[in-house]
Specification:
CATH architecture: Roll
Distance between the termini: 27 Å
Number of helices: 7
Number of strands: 6
Strand order of the largest sheet: 1-6-5-4
Helix content: 40-55%
Number of domains: 1
Strand content: 15-25%
Shape: elongated
Structural class: alpha+beta
Largest sheet: 4 strands, mixed
Radius of gyration: 18 Å
CATH class: Alpha Beta
CATH superfamily: CBS-domain
CATH topology: CBS-domain
Length: 152
């Protein structure tokens, strides 16, 4: 393999590790907006996640999201029963979607611009996972540190 080809391959592999796809958490099955908050909490617990994507109802509809803080602030804090509140009542919709192939630094800027801590990752038009600002900042920092070690 030529020097140029090996350099290009290394660059492509490095680029894969700098994308949202490399740091995202795979998404459990989306939940229906008519599900109860109790059902959402059970799904969160089973999948060890703190947020869920709400499935689209029809073509052209947008994804929704419910996070633990929505449940805390809109259900528990108001003394509402998780068995009697539907997810659609407390979810955020529409939510910011981020391409799985977007570079991490741009995804960080995008979330920061809107004051968000997480986004739904899409591949094409399908939700495939979640990404948090925290995970991306740490991955970006690790990549920068490795780059400085390699050049220094």
């Amino acid at each position: 393999m030529s020097s140029k080809a090996s350099t290009a391959t290394a660059a492509q592999q490095g680029a894969q590790f700098n994308t949202v796809r490399a740091v995202m958490s795979p998404m459990p099955a989306p939940i229906n907006g008519m599900a109860t908050v109790h059902e959402a909490l059970e799904l969160m617990r089973e999948n060890n996640v703190y947020s869920l994507v709400i499935e689209r109802r029809r073509p052209g509809d947008e994804y929704g999201m419910v996070v633990v803080s929505d449940i805390a602030n809109k259900v528990i804090a108001h003394n509402r029963s998780p068995d009697r509140v539907n997810v659609y009542e407390i979810m955020s919709k529409p939510v910011l979607t981020i391409s799985a192939d977007m570079e991490i630094k741009y995804a960080i800027r995008l979330l920061g611009r809107f004051g968000l801590s997480r986004g739904v990752v899409v591949d094409g038009n399908e939700a495939v996972g979640f990404v948090t600002l925290t995970d991306m900042v740490f991955r970006f920092y690790e990549q920068e540190a490795r780059g400085q070690e390699a050049s220094g």
